[in-house]
Amino acid sequence: MFLFLTSPLLIISAKPSSQYSSPSYLLLNNWVNQSIWVVTGIPIPNPQLNGFPLYNTSIRNLYVGKYGIVNLTVNFDVLTTSAYLNLNNTINLISTNGNISILTPPNTPYILILFNTNSSTSIYVKTNTTILHVNSSLVRIYTIPVIYISTNASYIIQNNTEKIIVYKGKWFVELSVGAQPNFNISGLSKLNEMEIGKWLNSSKLPTGLPTNLLKEYYLSLLLIKDDQNPYLGTFAASPSPIYLYSWVRDSAFSAMALQLAGHYNSALKFWLWLSNAGQLQSGVWYTRYNFYDDQPDTTFGIPELDGIGLYEMGVYQYYNLTGNVTFLKQILPTIYKSVKYQIEMINESRYHLLPQDLSVWEDREAYHFWTEAINDLGLKSVAEIYRALNFSNYTTILYYEKELNQSIIGNFWNDNYFASALGVSVVFEGGKSETILSPEPPSVDSATLLPINLGYLPPTSNYSVSNFEIVNKTLLTTGGLARFPNDMYHYSQSLYDATAPEPPWIITTLFEALYLEELGKYNEALNLMNWVYDHSQHGLLPEAIDPKYAYPLPTTSPLTWSSAMFDIVALNYKPVTNSQSTTLTGYYVLGIMIAIVAIISIIIILRRR
């Protein structure tokens, strides 16, 4: 079904809204043990102000499993004008010198760089070790592991640099990492097409999506797959260097998107990694980890406790989809540590809540609706896991889940919406003081939507409906949904690539789309999915959109969670088909006819009286 979409000439293009329609950074991997970081050459605005290194168009961070990052870079002497990821998982760079394609054929040790140039240019392969001339088309680089570079272009060796010169025409450079050179470039290209097509064809097919959004679904799956460390299982939050870490939260959604799409092995690799990852304390993960060596980032001193609930939800969902009881038994010690921490914290808290933590947006420390509701969902998941394993103490888990659930509603409900954050206040009355929880501004937040979508409350409950109406009324902007009022991130706080406060975010807009799907409002959800697609970078989804000029904010694009959230919403899209509509219409007609007959019968009976 999918193969017609994998033409190497196919570009997924959104409606261009600015010069920022192409990504500045991308990741590719071979699905086994190699990953490369591609600096596309598309400039970031004010790079030094935004904290970005000044790199030219290049391939960097050549990661090789147990060896880590190998000291080798490939630099291109070109001026890139456009960059995108194809549905055959090839990165294409359009430059003033012609086109460059970069691919890493799955399950092989090869990196291919293909040139179709209109003028001469040079490529510089740099390392810190010896480069040996083998013959006119091959060099050997004594890195660990050894790398061979073969090419049909001419080259010269200058100290620890191989300079490859290409002229007008078609050329190739093949990097063979820890393996003998292949030389069969067309064969590797065909293998890449075949393996990518096979993987995409194995994906679950969303129902009723228009062609542009179906392509977006597949491209987002590839982006998630490329942003996973193929050796460890960690996910990068983004190829952008400031986000090139593995956040537990973002990664959990990436794994859930993959497993919902049927790619269980990729998700399993992450869940097994997280089950064994170093923890801040028993049952509590660090906020983020190094993407390449899985070491915790200890600079985040305030924990983010949503990772606990997301882990529990994610592994239960994995079991639900696969029926893999062996997996559940394997991770039971980690689940036990998590739920033990949750119950202890609920018991110790005078409010029967988990402790204050850093918010989902990492902007403040408080009691957060997001964190508490996600952990409530996590406890529900643990209860179901224990029930599946015939553990009788699942009822104990449900007891504490109910206690947490009631505490969340009792503390966070603020007249007609859920307050995002609560702070501790001291009230003095009658000579006595009392410590209470009170909403901290800004208290309306789009993050209150997703836990409800995921099952914290029925979407049709009065709480859910009222909360949605307030969030939507307060935060809808430029067609998408902002995080919270007066959000300065990307404008005057940390990053500076927006022209005004309150940029609409892709994930928050998709939170709204998912809620609308839960209500059966599929046309409205589809409109939001189209808005997301229309504000992408050639189909690659950014973190946020400029609130004035509607261009993708380039500093954090593409964002892996944005792609994961799109795929989750796409798979949840189940519009009424024509046959279903016909059936429903038939039921309605039949119901009306029955009602008419009943009314006539009543009239006849009354007349007889």
How does this model look, in words?
This protein is an alpha+beta fold and 609 residues long. The chain has three domains: 195 residues, no CATH class; 370 residues, Glycosyltransferase; 34 residues. It is 37% helix and 22% strand. The strands form six sheets. Strands 1, 2, 3, 4, 5, 10, 14 and 15 form an eight-stranded antiparallel β-sheet that branches. The chain has an eight-stranded antiparallel β-sheet with strand order 6-7-8-9-16-13-12-11, with helices on one face. A four-stranded antiparallel β-sheet has the order 21-22-23-24. The N and C termini lie far apart (67 Å). The N terminus and C terminus are likely disordered. This is Glucoamylase-related glycosyl hydrolase. It comes from Saccharolobus islandicus LAL14/1.
How is the topology of this model organized?
Elements: E1 25-29, E2 34-39, E3 58-64, E4 68-70, E5 72-76, E6 80-85, E7 91-95, E8 98-103, E9 110-117, E10 121-127, E11 131-135, E12 138-141, E13 147-151, E14 154-158, E15 161-166, E16 169-177, H1 185-201, H2 211-226, E17 245-247, H3 248-260, H4 264-276, E18 279-281, E19 284-285, E20 288-290, H5 306-322, H6 325-348, E21 357-358, E22 365-368, H7 369-388, H8 394-412, E23 421-429, E24 432-439, H9 449-453, H10 462-475, E25 476-477, E26 480-482, E27 504-505, H11 506-518, H12 522-534, H13 560-572, H14 578-608
Antiparallel strand pairs: 1-2, 2-3, 3-4, 3-5, 5-10, 6-7, 7-8, 8-9, 9-16, 10-15, 11-12, 12-13, 13-16, 14-15, 17-20, 18-19, 21-22, 22-23, 23-24, 25-26, 26-27
Helix pairs in contact: 2-13, 3-4, 3-5, 3-13, 4-5, 5-6, 5-7, 6-7, 7-8, 11-12, 11-13
Domain GH15-like: 225-516
Keywords: Hydrolase, Membrane, Transmembrane, Transmembrane helix
GO molecular function: hydrolase activity, hydrolyzing O-glycosyl compounds
